[in-house]
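User: Can you help me understand a structure? I only have the sequence.
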Amino acid sequence: MADDLPAPSEGKFLFYDTEDGKTRVQVLLEGRTCWMPQGHIAALFETTPQNITQHIRNIFSDGELSESATCKNYLQVQKEGNREVNRNLKIYNLEMLIAIGYRVRSTRGTQFRKWATQTLNEFLVKGFVLDDQRLKAAETTFGEDYFDELLERIRDIRASERRFYQKITDIYATAADYSADAEITRTFFATVQNKLEWAITGMTAAELIRSRADANEPHMGLKTWKNSPGGKIRKADVTIAKNYLSQEELSNLNRIVTMYLDYAEDQAKRGNVMTMAQWVGKLDGFLEFNGRDVLQNAGKVEKKVADALAIEQFEQYKAQQCRIEASHPVSDFDRFVDDVKRLDSPNPEETNE
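Assistant: Let's start by predicting it. Here is the structure, written out as tokens:
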């Protein structure tokens, strides 16, 4: 194409492939947005450069966008015979591309609008956008700023108070090709908690709740709860699988998550790009490396069945506690009354004298 953008070693770019696979358009990344010259825009939307020029003029004249905010010159170096020729090429940013896309009456326009609004804009703002071509040439397309920001995110995740499995999903979300709507993401998010708890206990979250929720056990089998250690157990506490884990089990879980975080930080320091599939595989790899079983299915107990059983046990436990409290005052007021009674009653030894 006559107005090709610089080669990979001279600029950062990605490719947009049309859904029919017939057209691949080079997109320049700069200033946390993307840019295209008119020739690429015309190819993208299957129209003529003259038509694109007319749309751009109308967008400016209608006041929809300003030229200074959406257009700039880009130095283009071309070889013509034995000499190099420098020309200024006008390129347009993401806002303009979307605006043109809404005006172009073509299937390509609809496809690009969907891609740009749902994917490109979100990832460019976050600083993590690429395609397969960029993954294959990571050393030329990811600068120092990318990995500095990635390290900062990983360290924030490590320092956060989020639950173990949430830290794992936070690391997964740093994948260079991360998409919240991808099937691999939905599957990973749906199974990561079960994978971790299975690795530690040999049970999924639902199986753990069903196995350990017991009205006849101290604290109903819970090892921790919101108001622990001295406060009352609530219904919401008994349906959280992590609350049934022992201190040793929590320690084992923490070690696995720490290794995962250490690995993520090491990859960022070394300038290695990680994908969603790699993070999924890495979690399984860490579990296997630590001699833990890797969950291969969804488990034998549904979460709603386990929750119903736990709530049933909670109601029994609550009734038992009410009976105990009725015979043994436990409130601060009751304790105060008992203390007053003891102070007012004569000392048995003094009475005998």
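Now, to help you interpret it: Confidence is low (pLDDT under 50) at residues 6-11, 124-141, 349-353. DSSP finds 16 helices and five strands in the chain. Let me know which part you'd like to focus on.
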